[in-house]
């Protein structure tokens, strides 16, 4: 079920538990601002998730409340993860589902990085 992006942060969500080390993940990157790991149900040959270390429900929550250092650190981490996965030359796709219409399911901001194959143009995806 998609979440309400305006809900308060729920410390028991799956990604909060991964951040605390209570649940395992296939980690590919960690720094002061971000953790990145393989999606458990990959939708492409490469499907990574990058999450901020801070407690932010969604892209909206993060961009409204995070410090400039957190925003910059997170954005740089997303770029670095894609670079280190070898995705820059072939290209890749980023996605941050947000709230109900965006069909966000986990209430901790995450950016999907998809790569490893040719994707279709965006319009059919946007049409849903
Ligand atoms: P959303 O629909 O919220 O944008 O994406 C949530 C993503 O989290 C999905 O792609 C789903 O496969 C992934 N996911 C859900 N639970 C887990 C988990 O426990 N571990 C990992 N690595 N990914 C998860």
Description:
This protein has helices at 14-19, 59-65, 68-84, 99-102, 122-127; strands at residues 27-30, 34-38, 46-52, 92-95, 111-115. The chain is α+β, with helices and mostly antiparallel strands and 128 residues long. The protein has one domain (14-115): HIT-like (HIT family, subunit A), CATH 3.30.428. The protein has a five-stranded antiparallel beta sheet with strand order 1-2-3-5-4, with helices on one face. The longest helix is centred in the middle third of the chain and has 17 residues, at 68-84. The protein binds guanosine-5'-monophosphate. Guanosine-5'-monophosphate binds at residues 14, 25, 37-41, 97, 103-106.
Q: Count the DSSP helices.
A: 5
Residue-averaged pLDDT: 96
Radius of gyration: 14 Å
What fold name goes in the CATH topology slot?
HIT family, subunit A
> Unreliable segments (pLDDT under 50, ≥5 consecutive)?
none
By CATH, the architecture is named 2-Layer Sandwich
Biggest sheet strand order reads: 1-2-3-5-4
- Count of strand segments: 5
- In terms of DSSP E residues, the strand content is 15-25%
> What summary fits the major beta sheet?
5 strands, antiparallel
Secondary-structure-based class equals alpha+beta
Shape: globular
Query: CATH class, please?
Result: Alpha Beta
Bound molecules: guanosine-5'-monophosphate
**First CA to last CA: what distance?**
16 Å
Number of domains: 1
Order of helices and strands: HEEEHHEHEH
